[in-house]
Write a structure and sequence with these properties.
Length: 633
Amino acid sequence: MITTLINEQLINLNLKATTKDEVFAEMADILVQQGRVADKTQFLADIQAREELGNTGFEDGVALPHAKSAAVIKPAVAIGVSRSGIEYGAEDGLPSKLFFMIASPDGGDNHHIEVLAELSSKLIEDGFIDAFLAAKTPADALSLLLAEKQTVATLPQDKGLLIGVTGCPAGVAHTYLAAEALEKAAAELGYEIKVETNGSIGVKNSPTAEEIARAEAIVVSCDKQVDMARFAGKKLIKTGVKAPIKDGKGVIQQALVAKPFDANGDGLEDGESKVSKARSDLYRFLMNGVSHMIPFVVTGGLLIALALAIGGQPTDAGMQIPTGSMWQKVLDVGVVAFTLMIPVLAGYIAYAIGDRPALAPGFIGGWIANNGSFYGADAGTGFIGAIIAGLLVGYFVRWVATRNYHKLLQPLVPILIAPITGTLFIAGAFIFIIGAPIAGLMHTMNTVLTEMSTGNVILLGIVLGGMAGFDMGGPFNKVAFLFSVGMIANGQTQFMGAMACAIPVAPLGMGLATVIGRKLNIFEQSEIEAGKAAGAMGLVGISEGAIPFAAQDPISVIPANVLGSMVAAVMAFSFGITNSVAHGGPVVALLGAMNKPLLALLCMATGMVVTALVAVSLKKFRKAKADKVLAVA
């Protein structure tokens, strides 16, 4: 594949660009000049859109920007070298010098994935990157790419079979780099290996049951959920996807002396306490839910934001879009995605714990948790309820699935018994046990706010703001919002003024926090990308944009959101800001629904900065503490 997509005219060994965007533009020019791309603007937009999903800068100064685009006439790979290096946001923090820009036609084959897989075999070769950077002419560089794969000193592959599994969250470069590294290391150690890749084009090269049975050991180097039960009883090591890239031989050697994998055991590694194992597992379970939820948050949030920003109009009932307009349809689609995000969070947390039998009851539990009508509440439990539902379902289904059943019933457990009992369990738990206290709590909170409404506005601002920032769409947020809406009907619009300033603080603050904390290595790459969408949602008053951050790290994020929202609400009360519509965020101020728009924007901006600084400080403190513990261990 790679030989048909690259020629000397597509190689520039002396890029003039000094920024990431300039690199994209200069390399896109090469593709346009060679007749591979018809519309440079569209192609660059698609490259940037792919970059929003995850930075394509990798270790050792290599970057692999790529996109499937309707602007591509014929698939191609442009190659560029920057002698001084470009700040690209690479994971190792070093400048990027070698760029492979892969252009693939939209709707065509997955050329970019196939090329990435082939490039992986080159990039993993010892000395290849240095040799390429030292190439004097495009012809020399091309010959390095087209050269036969280096033959490494290997032992006869007679020691047995190894099984590898690789996968990164984006399912692109690291997936194939890790696979290539394992194949190279296995050959050097004298083992045959089969590596399953969990990439963006699906699962490829999966081992058969017979191959697993005769395997000497299993290496699962994956940062995403995979089916582990099939490896029960085999020597197995589980690592991140980067581990074999750094030390393939070491990872394999660890697997060869590892304990047999117990799918129903505690999974403790040597020297690992049950407490640390539980914390690690809990983080992994939450991350599995959050990573699957983020596309729904981003898609739904941005569609709703777009519809409200362009088609919305302030009315007494809130921001409204004219019925039957195109923007109403856009809003409806966004609402669908937003409605699904909480069940998805619960479903994939449950799946991480209890595997496929827990997926359906996890989704159903998340839906019930987020729909207060099931248990007589005015609002659902939001993301906090989804986390509770996912954890309860996951552990319950895992318990059900591991009981000893008669051999006639065993085939029915994963498809019938576990899903049905799990669904009945979580539905009953929320409707008859958890739901009533939630409904009672919401009623009590509303009563307290009503009694406070004639008291100290500073104290009321602290309470309203804290509730607004606590759970972003959950019962606390909803009670504060509905109370403020009710006060509009009584002619007291200052309460909604405070809420309107507090509502966008959490998403705007976390968006700013990802910008501040990018160089501090305190945010996951998925969080950095979600931060951009959160900022856009905050502009139109969608507080749910901060949910992925709070779900992933509630100890750092929730206090930051609460403090920032409190500051915004207290300032709004102090300035006498009012709001006559049932909505919040900068868009409301700019559309004239607030009496003092500039001061309202100041309140929101101040709250945003407080949230960002507190979140970054707490995350930095917790990371330093964790690093210290690891260093001592």
